[in-house]
Amino acid sequence: MAQHEITKTEYAVALAAGQLEGEGEFRGQGVRYVPDRDAIEIITTPNAGFLVPRQWIGALQDVSAEDLAKLEVWPDGSAIELEVSRSAFTA
């Protein structure tokens, strides 16, 4: 099979097509804990969002409010994560 070397023009066209497609996708762009609602707020593209009660997310039920303030969205917007020290979890 012969290899095809991608030209700068082909690369630019593919990059533009990918960016355009990505603009229409539903992805996370921000996350925060809302203490007075005991909920996680997820801000999405395109300019929307929703609240999820923390009790619906089993892995977050025993996490302190201080640690919940450290929630982050993955760079590609596909997930949220929380890095806390092992001492923050109880067995």
Strand content: 25-35%
- H/E element string? HEEEHEE
Low-confidence stretches: 87-91
Under the CATH scheme, which architecture of the domain at 26-88 would be assigned? 2-Layer Sandwich
End-to-end separation: 56 Å
Q: What is the number of beta strands?
A: 5
Would you summarize the structure shown here?
With 91 residues, the protein is an alpha+beta fold. The chain has a domain at 26-88: Uncharacterised protein PF10387, DUF2442 (NE0471 N-terminal domain-like). 22% of the residues lie in helices and 25% in strands.
What does this protein structure show overall?
- With 91 residues, the protein is an alpha+beta fold.
- The protein has two helices and five strands.
- It has helices at residues 8-23, 65-68; strands at 28-34, 39-44, 48-53, 72-73, 80-81.
- The strands form two sheets. A three-stranded antiparallel sheet has the order 1-2-3, with no helix packed on it.
Keywords:
91 residues, alpha+beta, NE0471 N-terminal domain-like, three-stranded antiparallel β-sheet, two-stranded antiparallel sheet, 2 helices
Secondary structure layout:
Elements: H1 8-23, E1 28-34, E2 39-44, E3 48-53, H2 65-68, E4 72-73, E5 80-81
Antiparallel strand pairs: 1-2, 2-3, 4-5
